[in-house]
Write a structure and sequence with these properties.
about 80 residues; alpha+beta; 3-stranded antiparallel β-sheet; 3 helices; 3 strands; elongated
Length: about 80
């Protein structure tokens, strides 16, 4: 089972605190997302959760680009990599 299926998509207000993954739900209020036996497991699960959703968002963005936008994106990537205009 993927982490997204268990916990939903990350909202940007999650953090790791020791062996816990917490989600901020209000001012000074947190909800426990998950608890682990050690902090290394918590860190690796949190990283995997973010990677799962980062790839989903990148695929959605790439699939939504028009041909013209794709050309501009390739040009911007070339300029960024090479520093040449």
């Amino acid at each position: 089972m993927k982490y997204t299926e268990m916990w939903g998509k990350p909202q940007g207000n999650e953090l790791i605190w020791g062996r816990l993954i917490l989600r901020m739900v209000g001012v000074h209020k947190f909800k426990k997302v998950a608890y682990f036996d050690n902090y290394l497991d918590a860190q690796s699960a949190f990283s995997e959760w973010l990677k799962e959703n980062d790839s989903i968002q990148n695929n959605e963005i790439e699939n939504s680009l028009d041909v013209e936008d794709q050309g501009l994106l390739e040009l911007a990537e070339f300029v960024h990599r090479t520093g040449k205009k």
